[in-house]
Amino acid sequence: MSRFVFALLFAASASAAASRNNTTTTLTMASDVENSLWLSAATYCSPDSYLTRKFVGPTEGFVATQTIYDKKSDTTGYIGYLPSDKHIYVLFRGSSSLQNWISDLDALKTAYTTFPECNCEVHKGFFDAEQQVASFVVDEVARLKSELTGYSVTVAGHSLGAALSHLMAMDIKKAGIDCNVINFGMPRVGTPDYAAFAATQVPSTLRFTHHQDQVPHLPFETVMSFHHVCTENYENEDGVVKQCDNSCEDSTCADQFAFVDTNWDDHHIYLGLPLECGQVS
Q: Which residue from 177, 227, 224 is spatially nearest to 198, judged by alpha carbons?
């Protein structure tokens, strides 16, 4: 990733930290974003290799401690920590199987029960898949937090994995552990009420979109009453990133494109890195 892009990301993080509900949580963008991106790409490697593979590039030295897997939904990912930036990472893989596509397409809404006080609804397929592994992930994050003094928690993923990452961050917060979210190509997860409530629980959320990527346009906002969470960071066709406004549906960012003008190609590359195993091996 270019130094120019990272400079823009760092500037965006400073602005976001100043405006995000007076939170003291900040993100070291040049490392956190790149690490989250590379670790998200690695989720597309064979799950059998997660605990034994050698992580390379900016994630060299990453220690994977647990594989995330649910057979019914094929929800897949891993958990571990990176000593070089003192972060515990939770990573979710995007769609790669029929079961994943069923989760993606099950766009019915269901009551969001993790925080009943939200009185809101979320995507049923995403929520059901995330709930299958929630207690396992929360327990492992809590264990690592107890053993790794001074480590922060970041939850990340791409595509379906991005949706799962945000829902999981909410469960981690429910358990009393603060965390950040950094994800790529995330579909809409819930209703406007969910988006507003989530901003109070996990304010340090960076949701990257890439030019005409089709997935962030789904499920539809106007027809199905879904709404994105903030904060969107939009990467244009030249690889320049800008922080979008706090409407979470900024018409100068990904929303500037009608769905018919979107494509799948932009979904598979973010910040110059193709999201595939071979690129990070």
A: 227
Find, among 221, 209, 211, the residue nearest to 184 by Cα: 209
Cα separation of 166 and 183, whole Å? Answer: 8
- What DSSP assignment string belongs to the chain? --HHHHHHHHHHHHHHHHHSTT------HHHHHHHHHHHHHHTTS-GGGTTT----GGGTT-EEEEEEEETTTTEEEEEEEETTTTEEEEEE----SHHHHHHHH---EEE--SSGGG--EEEHHHHHHHHTTHHHHHHHHHHHHHHSTT-EEEEEEETHHHHHHHHHHHHHHHTT---EEEEESPPP-B-HHHHHHHHHH---EEEEEETTBSGGG-S-HHHH--BPPS-EEEE-TTS-EEE--TTSS-TTTGGGS-GGG-BSGGGGEETTEESSGGGG-
Distance, in Å, from the CA atom of 224 to the CA atom of 122, rounded to the nearest integer, reads: 11
Tens-digit pLDDT profile for residues 5-62: 443 444 444 344 333 333 333 334 458 999 999 999 999 999 999 999 999 999 999 9
Write b or e for each residue in 75-104: b if 16 or more Cβ atoms lie within 10 A of its Cβ, otherwise e.
Answer: bbbbbbbbeebebbbbbbbbbbeebbebbb
Amino acid at 53: R
Q: End-to-end CA distance of the chain, in Å?
A: 16
* Averaged confidence pLDDT in the chain: 89
Token pair, residue 230, equals 């903030």
In this structure, what token pair is assigned to residue 160?
A: 């379906």
- Model confidence pTM above 0.85: yes
165 CB-near residues (< 8 Å, 6+ apart): 90, 91, 92, 155, 156, 157, 181, 183, 186
| Structure token pair of residue 73 | 């939904």
Q: What would the two tokens of residue 164 be?
A: 């799962």
